[in-house]
């Protein structure tokens, strides 16, 4: 991209708040997106001032938002490719011959979550068994914590849907 001339610089300074408006509109973190959006914004300034047909048909904010949105979408797709590559590389073997992904905790592991909560709360060993049982029991399919009529084999459910004994 070639440098802006004096007229374009002045124009860019006057409309600089559009970058912050875009960040607020899409709830984007400034630290991560500002540089990317600023480059797209300057491209919009250059294009808007060099093409008179754009000035007659559109507001500058429309062109700037379009350029910044395109840059945001390209970043999103690039991040997805990067994340997929990282996830794929986690299937590689480490020095011991194990997959890296096997070393990561499962985010949906209810038993691990229960164990961590026991450690965080500092509960006694006696409470550990009930926490283990609560984490491994199937969720209770009830409304309001009550068992369905005729199901008297187990206790009532907690408000979290875990069977209580």
> Averaging pLDDT over every residue, what do you get?
75
What is the CA–CA distance across the termini? 69 Å
In total, the number of strands is 0
List low-pLDDT spans.
Answer: 158-165
Fraction in helix: 55-70%
- Percent strand: under 5%
Biggest sheet, open or closed, and with what strands and sense?
Answer: none
Radius of gyration from the alpha-carbon trace, in angstroms = 28 Å
Shape: elongated
Nutshell version of this structure?
With 165 residues, this protein is an all-alpha fold. 60% of the residues lie in helices and 0% in strands.
Q: How are the SSEs ordered, and which strands pair?
A:
Blueprint: H1 6-14, H2 17-25, H3 30-50, H4 52-57, H5 60-89, H6 110-121, H7 125-136
Describe the structure.
- By secondary structure, the protein is mostly helical.
- It has a domain at 6-89.
- Helices cover 60% and strands 0% of the residues.
- α2 packs across α3 (30-50) and α3 (30-50) crosses α5 (60-89).
- The longest helix has 30 residues, at 60-89.
- The protein is elongated, with a radius of gyration of 28 Å.
- Mean pLDDT is 75; it is low at 158-165.
Looking at this protein, list some descriptive labels.
single chain, 165 residues, mainly alpha, 60% helix, elongated, disordered C terminus
